[in-house]
Amino acid sequence: MTSTEMRTEAEDSGPSGYAAARLRLLQEGAQSGPPRRAALAELTDEWLTGLFGAGAEGLRGVSLVAVGGYGRGELSPRSDLDLLLLHDGADSGTVAALADRIWYPIWDLGLALDHSVRTPGEARKTAGGDLKVQLGLLDARHIAGDLGLTAGLRTAILADWRNQAPKRLPELQELCAERAERQGELQYLLEPDLKEARGGLRDATALRAVAASWLADAPREGLADARRRLLDVRDALHLTTGRATDRLALQEQDQVAAELGLLDADTLLRQVYEAARVVSYASDVTWREVGRVLKSRAVRPRLRAMLGGGAKPAVERSPLAEGVVEMDGEVVLARAARPERDPVLPLRAAAAAAQAGLPLSLHAVRRMAAVARPLPTPWPAEAREQLVTLLGSGRPTIEVWEALEAEGLITRLLPDWERVRCRPQRNAVHIWTVDRHLIETAVRASELARRVGRPDLLLVSALLHDIGKGWPGDHSVAGEIIARDVAARIGFDRADVAVLATLVRHHLLLIDTATRRDLEDPATVRSVAEAVGSQSTLELLHALTEADALATGPAAWSSWRGSLVADLVKRVAAVLAGGAPEEPEAAAPTAEQERLAIEAFRTGGPVLALRAQTEPPTEEEPTGDPEPLGVELLIAVPDQPGVLPAVAGVLAMHRLTVRTAELRALDLPDGVEGSVLLLNWRVAAEYGSLPQAARLRADLVRSLDGSLDIAARLAERDAAYPRRRGTIAPPPRVTVASAASRHATVIEVRAHDAPGLLHRIGRALEDASVWVRSMHVSTLGANAVDAFYVTGPKGAPLPAEEAVSVARGLEEMLRG
Fold it and tell me: Where does this protein have coiled-coil stretches (predicted)?
């Protein structure tokens, strides 16, 4: 059915005819995007015109006006109808009756309606006091009635807006900033609000309002297409959910992608991020221009008065680098600059801007993108130095990098960047897309540059460490190959290329080893030393590890993690310096441990002690209070089955997070027969304060004697946890880490973190008749990666087949 036939049906059948025509239009697969939105607006216009005409016979000085999104002719499937019934004030009673004849049929169909009844004077007065009303009226469009009345209001509103722009535009900018603070940046959110988040549809509308003021205009290239893509996604979201929602929730993304004919949810998010990035960059440029214009208007009269009349003050241009100057708060090209002859100019200009903490002029970037020659391969030394300078400039690097990327200069310099650009990371720990994370890592690395002998290698490795995430397979392995190619292209020599490749390949080595392996085990330290190869590379890898974690998100780094990595680095450095890791020997029990063991044997039950652990001030930060690393929990209990799952369960019940745990059998002093299990654990409270030791002991006693059903208590709490629809965790994976230790078998568990996970694992390992010597727990967001050092009953590593069998059984238990 054609749109003309639909309009005819709507006119002939009233509200029910409109509803049927509307439904048919929305279900037509052949029509989507801007044509469907325009057709829906046109169909709605025809219906409302009919409603208006039926109630306005003989009535003059009244018109029906669409405002906001409907005024722009952009009706999404579940959009509100924003309507203004405009009248000249002559017959308010008749106008009220007309309003009822229009509003009630809309409500009867269940359509959302935002309506008002005003005279032109009232509309202007309301707009003057409410910025949102004024923005909606800027898109006023006549539907029915007195066309002259609508045209007069439009003219007056636009004139008011332009006259009041110096006052209203700063208000609009503040509104946008407040909204961005509340909603976040659309281009990085896993569940973005397409309308309210920064870079979304409201920001695109704000740019239209700025253009209407005639004070400034947004960069037009790509903006209309970005806005169209966001509207298309919102249309698909409305159709798949059947709701008027702008939040692109995780559970809807696959359906929305299918509705749009996209491959998968990641492809959808990447398109959304790309569109949001265009809108965000256009907003940055536009608001900067607005600020410059308003500042110029405020200063110009005073300057002219000082200069004695009409003399025009000269614009100051301050040199920053060859071919690059500062002018009016921006970095622009010098008059003598020749980007078509100077292939290093884009990097030189970017480095100069970042060093000065100034934005790159849009016109300068576009000119360089249009005419600049490509760099030769390998790059000249100056280009490499300018890249390092740019990366080492700290926080200003981000804005400058985004300006280059907006005009395609980054992918021209580094073609491999295309695969990570706007790529989402479906991991709650990561707060950035892959490309932004790489720049954030470089920013963090710049803060650590004085800790290393080769800051250039640190900064470039920070830029490239996750470059392999755009390829299938292990991103560290793929990244090593890409990093070799990029480093050679940039112009590093063979030795430096090898170091950069090592840093990228092993950028997760230190944090993974420190948090998941026994650092007392010589095999652990030797394996890291062999992978790193040299003291200088270890130094760089240490700084890269910290920068990477800090740039990932709050959950990826802590004093505890930092202390473990520092301990590992110290041990590896000793090996690289020519030493050898000492074979671990069973340490003699401390006086406190002996006291607890004797007390546990005497009472026949568990005894425990809690002791806070802190990190002393460092040389870099010699002042301030020590930072807590966790709490050391010492438990002594007579040797008996079920100790590990019982302790893990009690700690989970009290909301204590286990970070590391060691278990050993302690022989009692001479003259006392029997043995005691000594557990030395480091724990931290999830939130709030630590429970009292007496409460922990009481629950541990009850758990060991069977009067406290830990599994049931944890299951009750787990059932009470709020669960998000659609967030299905990947299946757990249990593997045996071969050659990780000569003294024990290392079983690594990767699973969704949940209350009582260690309790369940401990029970399964106990059922498998293996002894847990130590465990190292690492939790990032919703993912737990736990390593268990286990032996057989006689204290030796498990045979290979038995180890695989234990791992397989543990995985089946976790999946069940």
Answer: none
Note whether 516 and 785 are within 8 A (CB): yes
234-277: pLDDT as tens digits: 999 999 999 999 999 999 999 999 999 999 999 999 999 999 99
Q: How many CB atoms lie within 10 A of CB 668?
A: 16
CA dihedral over 619, 620, 623, 626, signed as positive or negative = negative
Label each residue of 109-137 as H, E or C. Answer: CCCCEEEEEECHHHHHHHHHHCHHHHHHH
- The answer on pLDDT for 541 being more than 50 is yes
633-646 per-position pLDDT tens digit? 889 998 888 888 88
Give dist(CA 633, CA 662) in Å, integer: 11
List, edge to edge, every strand of the sheet that includes 81-87. Answer: 113-118, 81-87, 62-66, 141-145
Q: Please give the angle made by the CA atoms of 579, 584 and 587, to the nearest 5 degrees.
A: 130
- What 3-state class would DSSP assign to 376? coil
Token reading at 63: 């018109």
Q: What angle do CA 64, 65, 69 make, to 5 degrees?
A: 145
Q: How many CA atoms within 13 Å lie on the side-chain side of 306?
A: 7
Residue pair 673/641 in contact by the 8 Å Cβ criterion = no
CB 664 within 8 A of CB 683: no
Starting at the edge strand found earlier in the chain, the sheet holding 324-327 runs: 317-321, 324-327, 330-333
Q: Which residues of 484-502 are buried (b: 16+ CB within 10 A; e: fewer)?
A: bebbbbbbbeeebbebbbb
Three-class DSSP labels, 701-754: HHHHHCCCCHHHHHHHHHHHCCCCCCCCCCCCEEEEECCCCCCCEEEEEEEECC
Query: What gap in Å lies between CA 516 and CA 244, rounded to an integer?
Result: 46
Does position 299 have pLDDT exceeding 70, yes or no? no
| Percent of the chain predicted with pLDDT > 70 | 89
Largest alpha-carbon pair distance within the chain?
A: 114
Burial call 147-171: b when 16+ CB within 10 Å, e when fewer: eebbeebbebbbebbeebbeebbee
pTM as predicted = 0.81
Sort 18 into a burial class: Cβ within 10 Å, 0-12 / 13-18 / 19+: buried
